[in-house]
């Protein structure tokens, strides 16, 4: 996955993109004056078939538009918590666990990460999607190679598949 931003991102948005790069099998590039077409060409050049464009509001990241082979796939509305320490994940061993029924089939398509085998659960190199206890909204959390929570914690406020109504 190639991660990029709006044209003039804030420092928090750039930090969020670097955090996603550390946590996922992804590359982050500064968009600058590149058009979306140029971003898609750069992704192909790098061998990536997915592009994530991070948008912001009032200087904070608030959304991601995910494109697959140049076509909009899904738009995510989110808020981000930066309070967790920065850790490194072993990107070759990363796996996904989804505890939110609505996203179980969708999550592997969004992130292109294999689902965890139900027989062998491990918190190492894990992307976990679970429901928040207080607000009952999905939370995306990352766990590093030592099983410690790391990187940005993402609260999914909503999502919309290309061609669908609001969710």
TrEMBL record:
<keyword id="KW-0690">Ribosome biogenesis</keyword>
<dbReference type="InterPro" id="IPR023548">
    <property type="entry name" value="Brix_dom_Rbsml_bgen_prot"/>
</dbReference>
<dbReference type="InterPro" id="IPR007109">
    <property type="entry name" value="Brix"/>
</dbReference>
<comment type="function">
    <text>Probably involved in the biogenesis of the ribosome.</text>
</comment>
<dbReference type="GO" id="GO:0006364">
    <property type="term" value="P:rRNA processing"/>
</dbReference>
<dbReference type="GO" id="GO:0019843">
    <property type="term" value="F:rRNA binding"/>
</dbReference>
<feature type="domain" description="Brix">
    <location>
        <begin position="1"/>
        <end position="167"/>
    </location>
</feature>
<protein>
    <recommendedName>
        <fullName>Probable Brix domain-containing ribosomal biogenesis protein</fullName>
    </recommendedName>
</protein>
